[in-house]
Amino acid sequence: MNVLQWLEVWYSRQCDGDWEHSQVVSITTLDNPGWSVDIFLGGTELEDKGFELLNIDRSDVDWVYGKVSDNIFQGRGGVNNLEEILQIFQQWAMLNED
């Protein structure tokens, strides 16, 4: 299963009639250019789980930043780093879900 398929399964498991009505998963672009991924964790098994700040700076176009703040996973990255951002979330989620 690739990371996008995994995210679809993870998202569907969170849907309980209420959770999915929040701003829960947002994938948008940045103007530098790059990607922004926000995933609301409130009401999931990942709520209040620790996430170590991640800051990888390979070049001006190849970089990844990640943190959890206010129960939102926030991933940012360069124009070719969307899959890597999702993989970071996937790995962290799989380590922290019961």
TrEMBL record:
InterPro entries given in the database record: Imm53
Source domain of life: Bacteria
Pfam family, one: Imm53
Protein name as it appears in the record: Rhodanese-related sulfurtransferase
